[in-house]
From TrEMBL, chains A, B:
Pfam families: AbbA_antirepres. InterPro entries: Antirep_AbbA. The gene is abbA. It comes from Litchfieldia luteola. This is Antirepressor AbbA.
Amino acid sequence: MINGTLNRLTRDEQALLLEVLFSQRYALDLVSVEIADIENGSKPTDELVYKRLIALYDKLIDEI
Amino acid sequence: MINGTLNRLTRDEQALLLEVLFSQRYALDLVSVEIADIENGSKPTDELVYKRLIALYDKLIDEI
Protein backbone atom coordinates (compact mmCIF):
# COMPACT_ATOMS: atom_id res chain seq x y z
CA MET A 1 0.00 0.00 0.00
CA ILE A 2 3.08 2.30 0.18
CA ASN A 3 2.69 5.21 -2.27
CA GLY A 4 5.61 6.52 -4.35
CA THR A 5 4.88 10.17 -3.59
CA LEU A 6 4.79 9.49 0.14
CA ASN A 7 8.28 7.98 -0.08
CA ARG A 8 9.60 11.11 -1.81
CA LEU A 9 8.50 13.36 1.06
CA THR A 10 10.96 14.22 3.81
CA ARG A 11 10.12 13.23 7.39
CA ASP A 12 9.43 16.94 8.08
CA GLU A 13 6.98 17.10 5.16
CA GLN A 14 5.28 13.90 6.36
CA ALA A 15 4.99 15.38 9.87
CA LEU A 16 3.50 18.59 8.44
CA LEU A 17 0.90 16.57 6.50
CA LEU A 18 -0.12 14.74 9.69
CA GLU A 19 -0.39 18.06 11.57
CA VAL A 20 -2.64 19.46 8.84
CA LEU A 21 -4.74 16.27 8.85
CA PHE A 22 -5.51 16.82 12.54
CA SER A 23 -5.73 20.61 12.17
CA GLN A 24 -8.47 20.02 9.58
CA ARG A 25 -10.07 17.40 11.88
CA TYR A 26 -10.15 14.94 8.95
CA ALA A 27 -8.22 11.93 10.30
CA LEU A 28 -11.29 9.96 11.46
CA ASP A 29 -13.22 10.65 8.24
CA LEU A 30 -10.21 9.59 6.17
CA VAL A 31 -9.87 6.25 7.95
CA SER A 32 -13.65 5.72 7.80
CA VAL A 33 -13.68 6.19 4.01
CA GLU A 34 -10.78 3.76 3.57
CA ILE A 35 -12.52 1.12 5.72
CA ALA A 36 -15.77 1.64 3.79
CA ASP A 37 -13.93 1.23 0.45
CA ILE A 38 -12.44 -2.05 1.68
CA GLU A 39 -15.73 -3.33 3.13
CA ASN A 40 -17.71 -2.53 -0.04
CA GLY A 41 -15.08 -4.29 -2.12
CA SER A 42 -13.95 -1.25 -4.10
CA LYS A 43 -10.47 -1.42 -2.59
CA PRO A 44 -8.47 -4.63 -2.20
CA THR A 45 -6.39 -5.09 0.95
CA ASP A 46 -5.01 -7.81 3.18
CA GLU A 47 -6.43 -8.85 6.54
CA LEU A 48 -3.56 -7.29 8.51
CA VAL A 49 -3.97 -3.80 6.99
CA TYR A 50 -7.74 -4.02 7.55
CA LYS A 51 -7.23 -4.94 11.22
CA ARG A 52 -4.71 -2.08 11.64
CA LEU A 53 -7.26 0.34 10.14
CA ILE A 54 -10.03 -0.86 12.49
CA ALA A 55 -7.69 -0.48 15.50
CA LEU A 56 -6.69 3.01 14.34
CA TYR A 57 -10.36 3.96 13.83
CA ASP A 58 -11.18 2.79 17.38
CA LYS A 59 -8.25 4.80 18.78
CA LEU A 60 -9.25 7.95 16.89
CA ILE A 61 -12.91 7.68 17.91
CA ASP A 62 -11.90 7.34 21.56
CA GLU A 63 -10.06 10.67 21.22
CA ILE A 64 -13.21 12.60 20.27
CA MET B 1 0.18 23.45 15.60
CA ILE B 2 1.03 20.02 17.10
CA ASN B 3 -2.20 18.17 18.00
CA GLY B 4 -2.56 16.08 21.20
CA THR B 5 -4.16 13.13 19.40
CA LEU B 6 -1.36 13.02 16.86
CA ASN B 7 1.18 12.74 19.65
CA ARG B 8 -0.70 9.78 21.14
CA LEU B 9 -0.45 7.77 17.93
CA THR B 10 2.41 5.33 17.48
CA ARG B 11 4.82 5.86 14.59
CA ASP B 12 3.18 2.85 12.87
CA GLU B 13 -0.28 4.44 13.24
CA GLN B 14 1.05 7.73 11.88
CA ALA B 15 2.58 5.89 8.90
CA LEU B 16 -0.74 4.12 8.27
CA LEU B 17 -2.59 7.47 8.29
CA LEU B 18 -0.16 8.86 5.71
CA GLU B 19 -0.58 5.75 3.52
CA VAL B 20 -4.37 6.16 3.65
CA LEU B 21 -4.06 9.89 2.86
CA PHE B 22 -2.26 9.02 -0.38
CA SER B 23 -4.39 5.94 -1.02
CA GLN B 24 -7.45 8.24 -0.93
CA ARG B 25 -5.57 10.79 -3.10
CA TYR B 26 -6.47 13.53 -0.61
CA ALA B 27 -3.04 14.94 0.35
CA LEU B 28 -3.07 17.82 -2.15
CA ASP B 29 -6.66 18.80 -1.31
CA LEU B 30 -5.87 18.71 2.39
CA VAL B 31 -2.90 21.08 2.05
CA SER B 32 -4.90 23.34 -0.30
CA VAL B 33 -7.71 23.70 2.26
CA GLU B 34 -5.24 24.52 5.03
CA ILE B 35 -3.54 27.17 2.87
CA ALA B 36 -6.93 28.65 1.92
CA ASP B 37 -7.95 28.82 5.60
CA ILE B 38 -4.73 30.68 6.41
CA GLU B 39 -5.03 33.04 3.43
CA ASN B 40 -8.67 33.92 4.17
CA GLY B 41 -7.77 34.63 7.78
CA SER B 42 -9.90 31.89 9.33
CA LYS B 43 -6.82 30.09 10.66
CA PRO B 44 -3.91 31.84 12.39
CA THR B 45 -0.38 30.60 11.66
CA ASP B 46 3.16 31.86 11.57
CA GLU B 47 5.13 32.76 8.44
CA LEU B 48 7.37 29.68 8.67
CA VAL B 49 4.48 27.18 8.75
CA TYR B 50 2.82 29.00 5.85
CA LYS B 51 6.04 28.81 3.79
CA ARG B 52 6.40 25.09 4.60
CA LEU B 53 2.82 24.49 3.46
CA ILE B 54 3.40 26.34 0.17
CA ALA B 55 6.58 24.34 -0.46
CA LEU B 56 4.73 21.09 0.33
CA TYR B 57 1.87 22.09 -1.98
CA ASP B 58 4.36 22.77 -4.82
CA LYS B 59 6.03 19.38 -4.23
CA LEU B 60 2.71 17.53 -4.21
CA ILE B 61 1.44 19.26 -7.35
CA ASP B 62 4.64 18.35 -9.18
CA GLU B 63 3.91 14.69 -8.36
CA ILE B 64 0.58 14.67 -10.20
